[in-house]
Amino acid sequence: MSSSMSRRLMLQSFAGLGLLAVGTAACSSTASSSRPSGAGGSTAATDPAADGRVFGAEWESHARTFMCWPASTNVWGDQLPGVRSDITRLARSVAGYEPVVMFARPEQADDAQTAVGDSVEVVPLAVDDFWARDTVPVFVHDDDTLKGVDFNFNGWGGKQKEHGNDSKLAAALLSKYRIPRIRTPVVAEGGAFETDGQGTLLVTESSVVNDNRNPGMSRDDIEDELMKALGVTKVVWLKGVKGKDITDAHVDCLARFAAPGVVLLDKPFPGDPTDVWSQAAAQAKEALSQATDARGKPLRIIEVPEPDPDRITGQGDAFVSSYINFFIANGAVFLPKFGDSKADANAQQIMRDHFPDRDIVALNIDNIASGGGGIHCSTHDQPGTPSQS
Predict the structure, then answer these.
(1) From residue 236, how far is each of 96, 195, 226, 370 by CA, in Å?
(2) Eight-state DSSP code of residue 379
């Protein structure tokens, strides 16, 4: 696999790192330190957040899900048809439960619409890649008004060079849908944040307290800005891993809330005890076991084992085999299946146990996973109800 085919292997190309092992736990300023100018009605996050600002949990109702059509052979090479097939399957599946909007480059919009069918709305808007979780704004309610936080996407710390359109996507989306825009000095991506909807935020330090995104800012500086921008009152920091994948170990492949006080945690397949991903998961387990949430209550941790790398159907040095990168839609939970029938069934049962009122939909996403991401990375929910969309 050439480095142009994978988000993770792009990092190796630029930084000269060695190959990554199958079954990593991450998911995925230098290139551009400038902040986008106003669009959609700006709100300064440097002012204290209103008491009513809330970063809602993913299990709350969605007005729609945003996705992006894979655009560039410069990024994906000959993997592009495969990732488009995976994105098509995912979009059609999510559209069975809630509205889906797919952004596509204007010259690719007709082909995208043909692929996804009439159940998905294709909107011509320039994009570079399909990682909507990271490039779409993070939505909050501020005194019952929906707003979007623009986290100044810079290609995961400048590691993906073709990101000029994606850097402008948050502002363009907010302008199009007339959603007020919250500005923040923090550079980050949506996949870096996980919330219980009650004021608790999980973040990996490696993906935010990093000079490739926020030079000169301490963890305390960043925590203060996140509290202002998102309205959270408690940040639980996990160490993560710097410099081993393009996201610098986003939390959404490591730890996710299933409910207030309940965290689903990735458990790497048993292997070399010196593996950095196993160490990161162990550190996260220890940190979470000692943490309390915004209500002052301890967290219950449920480990979700990864599949056997010798039994999965996907391949590639950047392949992500974490079930934690699931997406909670209206009435359903979407998670990957990797071909290890025992591990796949176990992960699906864990989801049934924790989301008993939702359909559990397992999809093959081997092409997406080979590029260092998953279902959650490819989707971004807008809070609300479909009738309001």
Answers:
(1) 34, 10, 12, 29
(2) -
Separation CA 300–CA 11 (nearest Å) = 34
pLDDT for the residue 272: 61
Q: Measured between alpha carbons, how far is 213 from 220 in angstroms, rounded to an integer? A: 15
3-state secondary structure of 106: helix
Contact 159, 177 (CB under 8 A): no
Parallel, antiparallel or unpaired: strands 332-336 and 327-329: antiparallel
Complete edge-to-edge strand list for the sheet that includes strand 234-238 = 194-195, 200-204, 234-238
Query: How much is the pTM?
Result: 0.90
pLDDT in tens, 114-172: 999 999 999 999 999 999 999 999 999 999 899 999 999 999 999 988 899 999 999 99
Residue 106, burial from CB neighbour count under 10 angstroms (0-12, 13-18, 19+): exposed
What torsion do the CA atoms of 118, 122, 123, 125 make, to the nearest 10 degrees?
A: -160
Residue 232, token pair as written in the block: 């959270």
Domains of the chain, with CATH numbers?
Answer: 3-29+50-388 (3.75.10.10)
SS3 of 17-50: the string is CCCCCCCECCCCCCCCCCCCCCCCCEEECCCCCC
Rounded-to-integer distance, Cα 368 and Cα 163, Å: 18
pLDDT, position 40: 44
377 carries an active-site annotation: yes
* Per-residue pLDDT tens digits for 230-258: 999 999 999 999 999 999 999 999 999 99
SS3 assignment for 56-97: CCCCCCEEEEEEECCCCHHHHHHHHHHHHHHHHHHHHHHCCC
End-to-end C-alpha distance for the chain, whole angstroms = 41
Instruction: Give the integer Cα–Cα distance in Å for 383 and 58.
Output: 8
Cβ-Cβ contacts under 8 Å for 186 (sequence gap 6 or more)? 151, 152, 208, 213, 214, 217, 222, 225, 226, 229
